[in-house]
Design goal:
alpha/beta; Rossmann fold
């Protein structure tokens, strides 16, 4: 089933890492869109390029090493997103944006013209904008389902409940695959630095691992859900009890993953930064996390990294942090890479479960969300 684009519509893809791009390229519908020249621009964290014919070659190869083609002189390159927008306006092209980046693109999202469409897995515009900007962005042609528990539909659940007057009173959930993995490794007796290394090497973390470990990534999801349910809240309203404090961000300063020229330099220096980071964690934090307790009371409990939202007579509290839960509780029984969320409304309670959304799952849900957005003409 081909994408139903209008005659003047073209897709603009913004991504953060090559793995995410491949997640989209492995979708046959997206590959067909590339082959049919329905893609106007491919935008990575370091380059903005337009060349549908070459994009098809890259997509069909499915080979990470083909990334060099994206930097080829065969591409027409643009230095800034504004240049792409100017090009699209000049060609009278309506944008259908797929944003799977982690960029601060609030202005880009807000400035989309009437008639443009967007689906996103990028949490930053929705979580760090003002509440007025959030409400301006989230319109029928804006798909945000992939930002939180992609594929489980939790964002749509809270949004529909609010729209029908069924207020969300509480949310409690574990939906960070990264933090669940690390908690499980700690329960198994690993040191914190070992657990974090396993998460990084297993591909569970964000490109900057501190985006997971300081609780900020989970806090963004919490803000998105609270805003989707109609609450005027911001990141500053979330009490975050982090696994690692913000001082560890010194190992990953802004632009740390973009400041080297060749792919070999990027790989080498990224690995050096990660090794320095893990050495500091081992030296300063490992002794604080000694694995399972021998205390009889704690043998019946498990560690979980939990986000919670409560609305008590209009007084909203939001918290993110590690907590102990009984093993036989709903959250305590979580296993593998499962996520769980418990929504409490004025009318009912709903439990949402499902696997952690990795790159293939997120890419698939982005494409499903894209169909919904295209239908909202």
């Amino acid at each position: 089933m081909a994408l139903d684009l209008a005659g003047n519509e073209k897709i603009v893809v913004i991504w953060a890492t090559w793995n995410i791009a491949i997640g989209l390229y492995q979708n046959p519908i997206f590959l067909e869109a590339l082959a049919n020249s329905q893609v106007a621009a491919l935008i990575s964290s370091s380059h903005v390029s337009y060349n549908p014919e070459l994009a098809v070659q890259v997509a069909r190869s499915g080979d990470k090493n083909q990334n060099k083609l994206l930097l080829s002189e065969k591409w027409e390159k643009y230095d800034h997103l504004e240049d792409v927008q100017a090009y699209l306006e000049e060609e009278r092209i309506r944008q259908v944006v797929i944003d799977v980046s982690n960029g601060n693109l609030i202005d880009y999202h807000i400035n989309l013209a009437d008639g443009d469409k967007l689906v996103t897995a990028n949490k930053i515009p929705l979580a760090t904008s003002s509440f007025n900007q959030f409400n301006f962005m989230v319109w029928p042609r804006y798909g945000a389902e992939a930002t939180v528990m992609a594929g489980r539909g939790i964002y749509g659940d809270v949004e529909r409940a609010a729209e029908t007057g069924n207020k969300i009173k509480s949310i409690e959930w574990v939906f960070s695959g990264t933090m669940w993995f690390i908690m499980s490794e700690l329960e198994a007796g690993k040191k914190l630095s070992e657990a974090i290394r396993a998460a990084i090497e297993g591909g569970y973390t964000e490109p900057n691992p501190m985006d997971d470990l300081d609780g900020l990534d989970v806090a963004k999801k919490l803000v998105i859900l609270a805003r989707g349910s109609g609450h005027d809240v911001s990141l500053e309203d979330v009490e975050v009890r982090w696994l690692l404090d913000d001082s560890y961000r010194r190992f990953f300063p802004t632009g740390w993953d973009k400041k080297w020229e060749t792919e070999s330099e990027i790989a080498k220096n990224k690995q050096e930064a990660i090794e320095e980071f893990l050495s500091a964690v081992a030296e300063n934090e490992d002794d604080k996390y000694r694995g399972p307790s021998t205390d009889d009371d704690l043998k019946h409990s498990v560690l979980r990294f939990i986000a919670s939202f409560k609305d008590e007579d209009g007084q909203v509290t939001m918290k993110v942090g590690k907590e102990s839960r009984l093993k036989d509780s709903q959250i305590g029984q979580l296993s593998g890479t499962e996520n769980i969320a418990v929504l409490g409304t004025e009318k009912y309670q709903k439990v949402i479960t499902g696997p952690w959304a990795g790159i293939p799952e997120t890419a698939a849900w982005v494409m499903e969300n894209l169909y919904s957005v295209l239908a909202a003409r």
